Amino acid sequence: MKKILLLSIILVTFATPAQAKTIQVFATNVLDTYGTSFSSSAGDVALTDDAAVESVIASNEATAIYGSDPTAYSVIDLGFGDNNVLTGSGSDLVVFSLWQGQDYSFALEAYGTGSSVDPLSSFLYKVTGDSIFQECAVKDGSGDCLADVSATSINLFGSDELALDDDVEIEFIRLFIGGSTFNGSIDVLDSYSNFTLVGANYTDAMVVPLPLPIVLFSSGLAFLGLIARRKKV
Length: 233
Fold this sequence. Notes:
3 helices, disordered N terminus
């Protein structure tokens, strides 16, 4: 865990309720954390290291991490593994959180390939009842809802406040949460800025390798086709 805090945030809001898009991949790889670290519940003891933070993020959609210090925000870098995440039409990312009825905010920076200094996008996003889509992720034996997971869709904008072009590759994202900057009411711990998962809507199309028998069969057909064409000449 590094002991530094990075970069200022452009204070503009571009968050909308999550749309019905298919999440292609989740950012569950913790690349680094900065500042006062995170806790598994609001105002709780800080998690000891990056691996502990990653285990909470990867556990399930109803388990969140929070900034552990009410006076200072925490920063986390998240990667998408071996997946190539891209920008696309409409929302690019979806941030899932446990919203408890208190408004709060978080900041998100998106970085392109080969650059960890100049973000492609850097904005503050407000989580309110109007900006999220909620559904019950955890129910008790009677079917009553125990945990609402909220989804905030994000269309990434550049410094010119215009949406990024399609097919811009995103290597990792940086989230700022917690502290007086990003929390709601300090007196209401459940309003602390948090997230459970971050998903991406667009990835490079993966070329699926064909089984060898299919490759040989296809090659045989191509060869026969070549012979047939030669006979017609």
